[in-house]
Design goal:
By secondary structure, the chain is mainly α. It is built from eleven helices and two strands; from the N terminus they run ααααααβαααααβ. The protein has a two-stranded parallel sheet. Helix 5 packs antiparallel against helix 6 (about 160-185). The radius of gyration is 22 Å and the shape is flat.
């Protein structure tokens, strides 16, 4: 095997390792969504990075954990009728969410050491990979800061602002890992120079970031139930609260802004698609561009459809039951992840320079 072939093989192996990480981060975000939708996030009232791997084992351990949960407002104000069996259910999801995060760290750490020993990394890869570990650890810390905001005798949920930060830092970790993998997988010759189109993509991603924050506000404030109608908002296009009330705390305003941003994104992504179709005629041999072309449109249309369905079913929520709304809301979050990744892939292909 030639040195060049060996180097390319090692590069592909590192890329596949990173894609496994991308997959595991997606699963972690999905588990986080289920944890939120089942109201499980505050069930574990302590943060034990090592000892927390082992859940309560004996009956007394379970009773002690349950007693700690009884000391917060969520239990006394909402879940006061929970039995130990109910508590075990919500405890499982929060424990599983944390366990998957720890597993993710191990899946990154062990191959990382192996790849260093076997010299799979170039010098340029070391710092970005170390930064990747820092981002992963930071995400765990932000998650605990978010949970801590609900561990008191006043708040029945975590802060919706901290929830938004936690979700979006998870997306940063996801995008960072995916971008790194793209650098190793997509040939340089498939990258094209189109500064205006790149700026359009950056603008779309900028609006999408704001939209994802508002999606988290929607979730944290349970804002869908404030106006479970479409295309109007309780009979009006613009709610009476806009723009006078808070844009991040008022549930109607949050939903209104979330809707408007969704409409803007649909228009911009379709516009981008039309421009890319024209560009494709000039780059018909570019397989990377061809494969990436249609997915942002598919995902944004599906995302808006699921968002409308989530709003319309938001009043069907039954405490302790994972029903229609929860299922749609989870799909809504999953499609958001794929929309982000499809746009990031497109942004990587539409590079600011040819190299």
């Amino acid at each position: 095997m030639s040195i060049q072939t060996d180097s390319l093989q090692k590069q592909k192996t590192v890329a596949y390792w990173l894609l496994i990480g991308v997959f595991m981060v997606i699963i972690q975000i999905i588990i986080g969504g289920v944890t939120r939708l089942t109201g499980s996030g505050l069930s574990i009232t302590e943060w034990q990075p090592i000892l927390g791997i082992i859940p309560p084992i004996s009956e007394q351990d379970w009773l002690d954990a349950f007693e700690k949960y009884k000391g917060i407002a969520q239990f006394s104000k909402i879940n006061y009728d929970y039995t130990l069996s109910d508590f075990k259910f919500i405890y499982f999801w929060e424990w599983f969410h944390r366990l998957w995060g720890r597993t993710l760290g191990v899946v990154f750490a062990i191959p990382f050491v192996y790849f260093i020993i076997k010299k799979y990394f170039t010098k340029e890869m070391i710092f970005p990979l170390v930064l990747l570990f820092i981002l992963g650890g930071l995400q765990g810390l932000i998650g605990w800061i978010m949970v801590k905001s609900g561990l008191n005798d006043t708040n029945i949920y975590v802060s919706h602002i901290r929830l938004a930060i936690h979700f979006n830092t998870a997306l940063i970790l996801l995008v960072y890992t995916y971008w790194f993998a793209l650098k190793l997988l997509i040939p340089k010759e498939d990258r094209i120079t189109q500064p205006p189109l790149r700026w359009l993509l950056l603008s779309i991603l900028g609006i999408l970031i704001i939209q994802l924050f508002y999606g988290s506000f929607m979730a944290g404030l349970h804002a869908g139930a404030a106006a479970p109608s479409w295309p109007d908002i309780n009979g009006k296009f613009i709610p009476n609260t806009f723009p006078s009330e808070s844009w991040i705390n008022d549930r109607l305003n949050v939903q209104f802004i979330h809707r408007m941003l969704a409409y803007i994104l649909v228009i911009l992504i379709i516009w981008m698609f039309m421009k890319l179709r024209t560009l494709m005629k000039e780059n018909s041999s570019n397989l990377s561009l061809k494969r990436a072309l249609v997915w942002p449109v598919v995902f944004v249309v599906l995302q808006v459809t699921l968002g409308i369905m989530a709003v319309l079913t938001s009043t069907t929520v039954v405490r302790g039951h994972f029903g229609t709304f929860e299922f749609i809301a989870e799909l809504h979050q999953i499609v958001a992840l794929f929309l982000v990744l499809s746009l990031v892939r497109m942004l990587y292909i539409v590079n600011k320079t040819a190299q």
